[in-house]
Predict the 3D structure of the following.
Amino acid sequence: MTTAIIGTGNIGGQVARHLVAGGEQVVLAARDESHAAALANELGPLASAASVRQAIAGADVVVLAVWLDTTKELIAENGDLLHGKVVVDPSNPIQLDGKGGFSRTLPEGQSRRVRDRGSSPRRRSSREGFWHARRGSAGLERESKAAARSVVLCDG
């Protein structure tokens, strides 16, 4: 199984390191392709770098380790390639607030969650959601087969 990791910052870099340490193949992509190439070089033969579209096209699982607004853009631009794939979003719904801090991008009381034809399976942490995606647990397989969309959003 190949995992595409879009974004090579704090989250994407750590996910890539852990997967490669576990013997998994990853394809890295970033807005600045030199960042993806540098991380792939650091990680060794189980890691490679590609454009965003190439990484998504060649992967079974796609991790969107980018800001929420960028995630929305990536889904809009690459929806044709995401069909039938497990897409994991380990990020939090926050943005820079212009004062050196962060603010939420969702209304108070609203959270991100896995959606399945309008119903919401139990909450999962980002880490737990990613573990299920990598291990192919029966629970996630059932959710995937019933899902109207192939994008999985996990609470963080």
